Amino acid sequence: PGHRLPPGLPPSALSTAAAAISPPSTAEPYEYSAGICMKGVRISGRPLYLDMQATSPVDPRVLDAMLPYYISRYGNPHSRTHLYGWESDEAVELARAQVAALFNASPKEIVFTSGATESNNISVKGVMHFYRDKKRHVITTQTEHKCVLDSCRHLQQEGFEVTYLPVGSDGIVDLNQLRTAIRPDTGLISIMMVNNEIGVIQPVEEIGKICREFNIPFHTDAAQALGKIPIDVDKMNISLMSLSGHKIYGPKGVGALYMRRRPRIRVEPQMNGGGQERGIRSGTVPTPLVVGFGSACELAMKEMEYDKKRITQLQERLLNGIRAKIDGVVVNGSIEKRYAGNLNLSFAYVEGESLLMGLKEVAVSSGSACTSASLEPSYVLRALGVDEDMAHTSIRFGIGRFTTEAEIDRAIELTVQQVEKLREMSPLYEMVKDGIDIKSIQWTQH
To answer: Which HAMAP family match (predicted)?
Structure first.
Protein backbone atom coordinates (compact mmCIF):
# COMPACT_ATOMS: atom_id res chain seq x y z
CA PRO A 1 0.00 0.00 0.00
CA GLY A 2 1.21 3.50 -0.83
CA HIS A 3 3.70 2.21 -3.42
CA ARG A 4 2.95 3.09 -7.05
CA LEU A 5 4.24 0.87 -9.85
CA PRO A 6 6.70 2.60 -12.18
CA PRO A 7 5.02 3.77 -15.41
CA GLY A 8 4.79 1.13 -18.12
CA LEU A 9 5.65 -1.78 -15.82
CA PRO A 10 2.82 -4.34 -15.59
CA PRO A 11 2.00 -5.53 -12.04
CA SER A 12 2.89 -9.10 -13.09
CA ALA A 13 6.47 -8.01 -13.74
CA LEU A 14 7.06 -7.89 -10.00
CA SER A 15 7.72 -11.15 -8.21
CA THR A 16 5.05 -11.87 -5.61
CA ALA A 17 7.84 -12.58 -3.14
CA ALA A 18 8.45 -8.86 -2.80
CA ALA A 19 5.59 -7.61 -0.66
CA ALA A 20 6.17 -3.99 -1.65
CA ILE A 21 8.64 -2.42 -4.02
CA SER A 22 9.23 1.30 -4.39
CA PRO A 23 10.08 2.67 -7.84
CA PRO A 24 13.78 1.96 -8.52
CA SER A 25 16.17 4.89 -8.63
CA THR A 26 17.49 6.02 -12.01
CA ALA A 27 20.87 4.52 -11.14
CA GLU A 28 19.41 1.02 -11.39
CA PRO A 29 19.60 -0.81 -14.72
CA TYR A 30 15.92 -0.53 -15.62
CA GLU A 31 14.35 0.30 -18.99
CA TYR A 32 10.61 -0.08 -18.65
CA SER A 33 9.63 -0.01 -22.30
CA ALA A 34 12.03 -2.79 -23.25
CA GLY A 35 12.03 -4.64 -19.94
CA ILE A 36 15.12 -4.92 -17.77
CA CYS A 37 18.72 -5.12 -18.88
CA MET A 38 21.40 -6.18 -16.44
CA LYS A 39 24.81 -7.78 -16.97
CA GLY A 40 24.04 -7.97 -20.68
CA VAL A 41 20.85 -9.97 -20.18
CA ARG A 42 17.53 -8.48 -21.28
CA ILE A 43 14.29 -9.79 -19.78
CA SER A 44 10.71 -8.55 -19.87
CA GLY A 45 10.30 -7.98 -16.12
CA ARG A 46 11.53 -9.05 -12.72
CA PRO A 47 12.00 -12.84 -12.74
CA LEU A 48 9.80 -14.95 -10.50
CA TYR A 49 11.81 -15.96 -7.45
CA LEU A 50 12.45 -19.65 -6.81
CA ASP A 51 15.78 -19.49 -4.98
CA MET A 52 14.62 -19.57 -1.34
CA GLN A 53 17.67 -21.61 -0.21
CA ALA A 54 19.94 -18.71 -1.19
CA THR A 55 17.86 -16.20 0.71
CA SER A 56 14.25 -15.31 1.46
CA PRO A 57 12.43 -11.97 1.32
CA VAL A 58 11.87 -10.28 4.67
CA ASP A 59 8.32 -10.89 5.88
CA PRO A 60 6.60 -7.45 6.05
CA ARG A 61 5.59 -8.25 9.66
CA VAL A 62 9.29 -8.72 10.50
CA LEU A 63 10.13 -5.36 8.93
CA ASP A 64 7.40 -3.69 11.01
CA ALA A 65 8.99 -5.08 14.18
CA MET A 66 12.45 -3.82 13.13
CA LEU A 67 11.72 -0.26 12.01
CA PRO A 68 11.35 1.41 15.46
CA TYR A 69 14.86 0.18 16.38
CA TYR A 70 16.31 2.05 13.40
CA ILE A 71 14.43 5.31 13.87
CA SER A 72 13.50 6.11 17.47
CA ARG A 73 14.79 3.32 19.74
CA TYR A 74 18.32 3.41 18.43
CA GLY A 75 20.19 2.92 21.73
CA ASN A 76 23.16 0.60 22.13
CA PRO A 77 21.82 -2.47 23.98
CA HIS A 78 25.01 -2.51 26.08
CA SER A 79 24.53 1.08 27.35
CA ARG A 80 23.54 0.53 30.97
CA THR A 81 22.98 4.14 32.08
CA HIS A 82 19.90 5.37 30.20
CA LEU A 83 16.52 4.46 28.76
CA TYR A 84 17.80 4.13 25.17
CA GLY A 85 20.14 1.35 26.20
CA TRP A 86 17.59 -0.33 28.46
CA GLU A 87 14.85 -0.54 25.83
CA SER A 88 17.26 -1.95 23.22
CA ASP A 89 18.55 -4.46 25.76
CA GLU A 90 14.97 -5.50 26.54
CA ALA A 91 14.25 -5.95 22.82
CA VAL A 92 17.37 -8.12 22.39
CA GLU A 93 16.38 -10.29 25.35
CA LEU A 94 12.85 -10.74 23.98
CA ALA A 95 14.34 -11.81 20.62
CA ARG A 96 16.62 -14.26 22.44
CA ALA A 97 13.54 -15.87 24.01
CA GLN A 98 11.71 -15.95 20.65
CA VAL A 99 14.63 -17.74 18.97
CA ALA A 100 15.08 -20.22 21.84
CA ALA A 101 11.37 -21.09 21.95
CA LEU A 102 11.45 -22.35 18.36
CA PHE A 103 13.61 -25.36 19.29
CA ASN A 104 12.94 -25.84 23.02
CA ALA A 105 16.08 -24.16 24.37
CA SER A 106 16.70 -21.67 27.15
CA PRO A 107 17.27 -18.01 26.10
CA LYS A 108 20.55 -18.22 28.05
CA GLU A 109 21.81 -20.75 25.48
CA ILE A 110 21.50 -18.32 22.54
CA VAL A 111 24.50 -16.30 21.32
CA PHE A 112 23.78 -13.80 18.53
CA THR A 113 26.25 -13.82 15.62
CA SER A 114 26.43 -12.39 12.10
CA GLY A 115 25.00 -15.59 10.61
CA ALA A 116 25.41 -19.35 10.24
CA THR A 117 28.89 -19.07 8.71
CA GLU A 118 30.22 -17.37 11.84
CA SER A 119 28.31 -19.80 14.09
CA ASN A 120 29.82 -22.75 12.20
CA ASN A 121 33.33 -21.29 12.57
CA ILE A 122 32.87 -20.69 16.31
CA SER A 123 31.52 -24.23 16.76
CA VAL A 124 34.05 -26.22 14.74
CA LYS A 125 37.22 -24.23 15.52
CA GLY A 126 36.08 -23.02 18.95
CA VAL A 127 35.34 -26.47 20.42
CA MET A 128 38.49 -28.09 19.04
CA HIS A 129 40.71 -25.23 20.22
CA PHE A 130 39.18 -25.32 23.69
CA TYR A 131 39.72 -29.07 24.09
CA ARG A 132 42.93 -29.18 22.02
CA ASP A 133 44.96 -30.97 24.71
CA LYS A 134 42.74 -34.06 24.79
CA LYS A 135 40.80 -34.04 21.52
CA ARG A 136 42.40 -34.03 18.07
CA HIS A 137 39.77 -35.55 15.76
CA VAL A 138 36.59 -34.25 14.06
CA ILE A 139 33.94 -36.20 12.16
CA THR A 140 31.83 -34.48 9.49
CA THR A 141 30.32 -35.36 6.10
CA GLN A 142 31.40 -34.69 2.51
CA THR A 143 28.17 -32.78 1.81
CA GLU A 144 28.41 -30.12 4.55
CA HIS A 145 28.20 -26.43 3.73
CA LYS A 146 31.48 -24.89 2.53
CA CYS A 147 32.02 -22.99 5.81
CA VAL A 148 32.06 -26.23 7.84
CA LEU A 149 34.35 -27.97 5.34
CA ASP A 150 36.69 -24.95 5.24
CA SER A 151 36.77 -24.72 9.05
CA CYS A 152 37.72 -28.41 9.11
CA ARG A 153 40.49 -27.82 6.53
CA HIS A 154 41.74 -24.97 8.69
CA LEU A 155 41.93 -27.36 11.67
CA GLN A 156 43.79 -29.93 9.53
CA GLN A 157 46.43 -27.30 8.77
CA GLU A 158 46.85 -26.91 12.53
CA GLY A 159 47.45 -30.65 12.91
CA PHE A 160 43.97 -31.85 13.84
CA GLU A 161 42.55 -34.86 11.99
CA VAL A 162 39.22 -34.87 10.17
CA THR A 163 37.10 -37.76 8.88
CA TYR A 164 34.82 -36.73 6.00
CA LEU A 165 32.07 -39.37 5.95
CA PRO A 166 30.61 -40.32 2.56
CA VAL A 167 26.82 -40.27 2.04
CA GLY A 168 24.59 -42.74 0.19
CA SER A 169 23.10 -42.04 -3.23
CA ASP A 170 20.12 -40.57 -1.34
CA GLY A 171 22.43 -38.05 0.38
CA ILE A 172 21.94 -39.58 3.86
CA VAL A 173 24.86 -40.47 6.13
CA ASP A 174 25.32 -44.14 7.14
CA LEU A 175 25.03 -44.38 10.94
CA ASN A 176 27.22 -47.52 11.07
CA GLN A 177 30.01 -45.70 9.26
CA LEU A 178 29.62 -42.83 11.71
CA ARG A 179 29.89 -45.19 14.68
CA THR A 180 32.97 -46.88 13.18
CA ALA A 181 34.70 -43.53 12.59
CA ILE A 182 34.57 -42.55 16.31
CA ARG A 183 37.92 -42.56 18.14
CA PRO A 184 38.86 -41.94 21.79
CA ASP A 185 40.18 -38.49 20.77
CA THR A 186 37.10 -37.47 18.71
CA GLY A 187 36.20 -34.00 20.00
CA LEU A 188 33.26 -33.07 17.74
CA ILE A 189 30.76 -34.56 15.31
CA SER A 190 29.39 -31.93 12.92
CA ILE A 191 26.54 -32.95 10.59
CA MET A 192 24.06 -30.54 9.02
CA MET A 193 20.32 -31.00 9.53
CA VAL A 194 18.91 -30.04 6.10
CA ASN A 195 21.23 -29.87 3.11
CA ASN A 196 21.27 -26.50 1.37
CA GLU A 197 21.69 -27.95 -2.13
CA ILE A 198 19.51 -31.05 -2.18
CA GLY A 199 17.22 -30.52 0.83
CA VAL A 200 17.71 -33.98 2.39
CA ILE A 201 17.13 -34.26 6.14
CA GLN A 202 19.79 -36.18 8.06
CA PRO A 203 18.74 -38.57 10.88
CA VAL A 204 19.69 -36.00 13.51
CA GLU A 205 17.98 -37.73 16.43
CA GLU A 206 19.85 -40.99 15.80
CA ILE A 207 23.15 -39.11 15.39
CA GLY A 208 22.43 -37.35 18.70
CA LYS A 209 21.94 -40.73 20.41
CA ILE A 210 25.32 -41.99 19.14
CA CYS A 211 26.96 -38.77 20.38
CA ARG A 212 25.38 -39.20 23.81
CA GLU A 213 26.54 -42.83 23.98
CA PHE A 214 30.18 -41.84 23.31
CA ASN A 215 29.93 -38.51 25.17
CA ILE A 216 30.99 -36.44 22.13
CA PRO A 217 29.65 -32.91 21.49
CA PHE A 218 27.25 -32.83 18.52
CA HIS A 219 27.16 -29.75 16.29
CA THR A 220 24.57 -29.28 13.55
CA ASP A 221 24.27 -26.56 10.92
CA ALA A 222 20.51 -25.91 10.97
CA ALA A 223 20.44 -22.80 8.76
CA GLN A 224 18.14 -24.50 6.23
CA ALA A 225 16.11 -26.38 8.87
CA LEU A 226 15.11 -23.68 11.35
CA GLY A 227 11.43 -22.81 11.12
CA LYS A 228 10.88 -25.40 8.39
CA ILE A 229 11.03 -28.71 10.26
CA PRO A 230 10.43 -29.29 14.00
CA ILE A 231 13.66 -29.09 16.04
CA ASP A 232 14.04 -30.05 19.69
CA VAL A 233 17.60 -29.69 20.99
CA ASP A 234 16.96 -31.96 23.99
CA LYS A 235 15.32 -34.74 22.04
CA MET A 236 18.07 -34.55 19.40
CA ASN A 237 20.87 -34.17 21.98
CA ILE A 238 22.37 -31.20 20.13
CA SER A 239 25.31 -29.45 21.86
CA LEU A 240 25.81 -26.65 19.32
CA MET A 241 23.56 -25.45 16.50
CA SER A 242 24.14 -22.77 13.83
CA LEU A 243 21.25 -20.57 12.70
CA SER A 244 20.68 -17.84 10.12
CA GLY A 245 18.11 -15.05 9.93
CA HIS A 246 17.76 -14.56 6.18
CA LYS A 247 16.70 -18.14 5.44
CA ILE A 248 13.49 -17.73 7.47
CA TYR A 249 12.13 -14.39 6.16
CA GLY A 250 14.29 -12.38 8.56
CA PRO A 251 17.05 -9.85 7.76
CA LYS A 252 20.47 -10.68 6.32
CA GLY A 253 23.58 -10.29 8.47
CA VAL A 254 22.26 -11.86 11.65
CA GLY A 255 22.22 -15.41 13.01
CA ALA A 256 22.69 -17.27 16.24
CA LEU A 257 24.61 -20.06 17.86
CA TYR A 258 22.81 -22.36 20.27
CA MET A 259 25.23 -23.56 22.97
CA ARG A 260 24.08 -26.16 25.48
CA ARG A 261 24.45 -25.26 29.19
CA ARG A 262 23.88 -28.73 30.74
CA PRO A 263 26.12 -30.59 30.14
CA ARG A 264 27.98 -27.40 29.43
CA ILE A 265 29.79 -27.01 26.13
CA ARG A 266 32.80 -24.66 26.01
CA VAL A 267 34.37 -22.90 23.01
CA GLU A 268 37.30 -20.62 22.41
CA PRO A 269 35.98 -17.29 21.03
CA GLN A 270 37.06 -16.52 17.45
CA MET A 271 36.94 -12.76 17.96
CA ASN A 272 38.19 -10.61 20.83
CA GLY A 273 36.58 -7.42 22.03
CA GLY A 274 34.26 -5.93 24.64
CA GLY A 275 33.02 -9.27 25.91
CA GLN A 276 29.44 -9.01 24.66
CA GLU A 277 27.40 -12.24 24.33
CA ARG A 278 29.22 -13.75 27.33
CA GLY A 279 32.56 -13.15 25.62
CA ILE A 280 31.80 -15.73 22.94
CA ARG A 281 30.95 -13.16 20.29
CA SER A 282 32.22 -9.66 21.06
CA GLY A 283 30.87 -6.66 19.18
CA THR A 284 27.76 -4.52 19.63
CA VAL A 285 24.66 -6.63 19.13
CA PRO A 286 22.75 -5.16 16.12
CA THR A 287 19.38 -4.56 17.82
CA PRO A 288 17.22 -4.08 14.67
CA LEU A 289 18.59 -7.23 13.04
CA VAL A 290 18.23 -9.30 16.20
CA VAL A 291 14.66 -8.02 16.69
CA GLY A 292 13.92 -9.04 13.09
CA PHE A 293 15.42 -12.50 13.62
CA GLY A 294 13.37 -12.98 16.80
CA SER A 295 10.19 -11.87 15.08
CA ALA A 296 10.88 -14.23 12.14
CA CYS A 297 11.31 -17.13 14.58
CA GLU A 298 8.03 -16.34 16.34
CA LEU A 299 6.19 -16.21 13.00
CA ALA A 300 7.82 -19.48 11.91
CA MET A 301 6.63 -21.14 15.10
CA LYS A 302 3.03 -20.07 14.47
CA GLU A 303 3.01 -20.79 10.74
CA MET A 304 5.31 -23.82 10.31
CA GLU A 305 2.44 -26.30 9.93
CA TYR A 306 0.57 -24.11 7.44
CA ASP A 307 3.72 -23.26 5.45
CA LYS A 308 4.69 -26.94 5.27
CA LYS A 309 1.30 -27.97 3.84
CA ARG A 310 1.31 -25.19 1.26
CA ILE A 311 4.93 -25.69 0.22
CA THR A 312 4.48 -29.46 -0.09
CA GLN A 313 1.50 -28.95 -2.41
CA LEU A 314 3.46 -26.45 -4.53
CA GLN A 315 6.45 -28.80 -4.71
CA GLU A 316 4.25 -31.68 -5.92
CA ARG A 317 2.61 -29.35 -8.44
CA LEU A 318 6.04 -28.33 -9.78
CA LEU A 319 7.48 -31.85 -9.98
CA ASN A 320 4.35 -33.45 -11.45
CA GLY A 321 3.90 -30.56 -13.86
CA ILE A 322 7.43 -30.95 -15.25
CA ARG A 323 7.30 -34.77 -15.32
CA ALA A 324 3.96 -34.77 -17.15
CA LYS A 325 5.55 -32.99 -20.10
CA ILE A 326 9.16 -34.27 -20.30
CA ASP A 327 11.05 -37.46 -19.51
CA GLY A 328 14.56 -37.90 -18.13
CA VAL A 329 13.90 -35.80 -15.00
CA VAL A 330 15.71 -37.03 -11.88
CA VAL A 331 15.21 -35.79 -8.31
CA ASN A 332 18.59 -35.52 -6.54
CA GLY A 333 18.61 -36.80 -2.97
CA SER A 334 16.10 -38.83 -0.97
CA ILE A 335 12.45 -38.34 -1.97
CA GLU A 336 11.04 -39.35 1.45
CA LYS A 337 13.50 -37.62 3.76
CA ARG A 338 13.65 -34.11 2.37
CA TYR A 339 12.38 -30.63 3.07
CA ALA A 340 9.67 -29.97 0.48
CA GLY A 341 10.76 -26.39 -0.25
CA ASN A 342 13.94 -27.64 -1.91
CA LEU A 343 13.56 -29.51 -5.20
CA ASN A 344 16.86 -30.31 -6.90
CA LEU A 345 16.32 -31.75 -10.39
CA SER A 346 18.65 -32.99 -13.12
CA PHE A 347 17.50 -33.03 -16.75
CA ALA A 348 19.16 -35.67 -18.92
CA TYR A 349 20.74 -34.60 -22.25
CA VAL A 350 20.72 -30.89 -21.39
CA GLU A 351 23.72 -28.70 -20.57
CA GLY A 352 23.06 -27.03 -17.21
CA GLU A 353 24.65 -23.66 -17.90
CA SER A 354 22.56 -23.26 -21.10
CA LEU A 355 19.45 -24.23 -19.15
CA LEU A 356 20.13 -21.65 -16.44
CA MET A 357 20.88 -19.00 -19.07
CA GLY A 358 17.64 -19.85 -20.87
CA LEU A 359 15.64 -19.66 -17.64
CA LYS A 360 16.33 -15.96 -17.11
CA GLU A 361 12.67 -15.31 -16.22
CA VAL A 362 12.97 -17.66 -13.24
CA ALA A 363 15.47 -16.91 -10.47
CA VAL A 364 16.88 -20.39 -9.76
CA SER A 365 20.39 -21.69 -9.14
CA SER A 366 22.47 -24.76 -9.79
CA GLY A 367 23.62 -25.11 -6.18
CA SER A 368 24.62 -22.97 -3.23
CA ALA A 369 24.99 -19.23 -3.81
CA CYS A 370 28.51 -19.46 -2.34
CA THR A 371 29.68 -21.73 -5.18
CA SER A 372 27.40 -20.50 -7.99
CA ALA A 373 30.24 -18.71 -9.79
CA SER A 374 32.15 -21.94 -10.44
CA LEU A 375 31.48 -24.17 -13.43
CA GLU A 376 32.58 -27.27 -11.50
CA PRO A 377 29.75 -29.72 -10.94
CA SER A 378 28.50 -29.52 -7.35
CA TYR A 379 30.63 -31.38 -4.78
CA VAL A 380 27.39 -32.36 -3.02
CA LEU A 381 26.05 -34.14 -6.12
CA ARG A 382 29.45 -35.75 -6.73
CA ALA A 383 29.34 -37.14 -3.18
CA LEU A 384 25.96 -38.70 -4.04
CA GLY A 385 27.62 -40.48 -6.95
CA VAL A 386 25.62 -38.54 -9.55
CA ASP A 387 27.20 -38.92 -13.02
CA GLU A 388 29.20 -35.88 -14.08
CA ASP A 389 26.88 -35.13 -17.02
CA MET A 390 23.78 -35.26 -14.80
CA ALA A 391 25.46 -33.23 -12.04
CA HIS A 392 26.10 -30.52 -14.63
CA THR A 393 22.38 -30.22 -15.44
CA SER A 394 21.06 -29.87 -11.92
CA ILE A 395 18.77 -27.01 -10.98
CA ARG A 396 17.59 -26.17 -7.48
CA PHE A 397 14.05 -24.83 -7.20
CA GLY A 398 13.39 -23.14 -3.85
CA ILE A 399 9.76 -22.72 -2.81
CA GLY A 400 8.73 -20.58 0.16
CA ARG A 401 6.04 -18.78 2.13
CA PHE A 402 5.30 -16.22 -0.61
CA THR A 403 5.49 -18.49 -3.66
CA THR A 404 2.19 -18.63 -5.61
CA GLU A 405 0.59 -21.32 -7.77
CA ALA A 406 0.81 -18.95 -10.74
CA GLU A 407 4.58 -18.72 -10.27
CA ILE A 408 4.89 -22.51 -10.10
CA ASP A 409 2.82 -22.92 -13.29
CA ARG A 410 4.92 -20.34 -15.12
CA ALA A 411 8.13 -22.03 -13.91
CA ILE A 412 6.88 -25.39 -15.25
CA GLU A 413 6.05 -23.80 -18.61
CA LEU A 414 9.42 -22.05 -18.96
CA THR A 415 11.47 -25.03 -17.74
CA VAL A 416 9.74 -27.49 -20.09
CA GLN A 417 10.04 -25.06 -23.01
CA GLN A 418 13.76 -24.57 -22.40
CA VAL A 419 14.57 -28.27 -21.86
CA GLU A 420 12.72 -29.21 -25.06
CA LYS A 421 14.51 -26.48 -27.00
CA LEU A 422 17.94 -27.63 -25.78
CA ARG A 423 17.16 -31.30 -26.39
CA GLU A 424 16.16 -30.52 -29.96
CA MET A 425 19.68 -29.17 -30.43
CA SER A 426 21.31 -32.18 -28.72
CA PRO A 427 22.74 -34.97 -30.90
CA LEU A 428 22.85 -37.21 -27.79
CA TYR A 429 19.11 -36.91 -27.30
CA GLU A 430 18.59 -37.83 -30.97
CA MET A 431 20.64 -40.99 -30.46
CA VAL A 432 18.72 -41.93 -27.30
CA LYS A 433 15.42 -41.52 -29.13
CA ASP A 434 16.80 -43.86 -31.79
CA GLY A 435 17.41 -46.46 -29.08
CA ILE A 436 21.21 -46.18 -28.91
CA ASP A 437 22.78 -46.82 -25.50
CA ILE A 438 25.06 -43.80 -25.11
CA LYS A 439 27.05 -45.31 -22.24
CA SER A 440 28.20 -48.18 -24.45
CA ILE A 441 29.67 -45.92 -27.13
CA GLN A 442 33.46 -45.79 -27.38
CA TRP A 443 34.23 -42.14 -28.17
CA THR A 444 37.48 -41.63 -30.06
CA GLN A 445 39.87 -38.84 -29.16
CA HIS A 446 40.98 -36.59 -32.02
So the answer is: Cys_desulf_IscS (MF_00331)
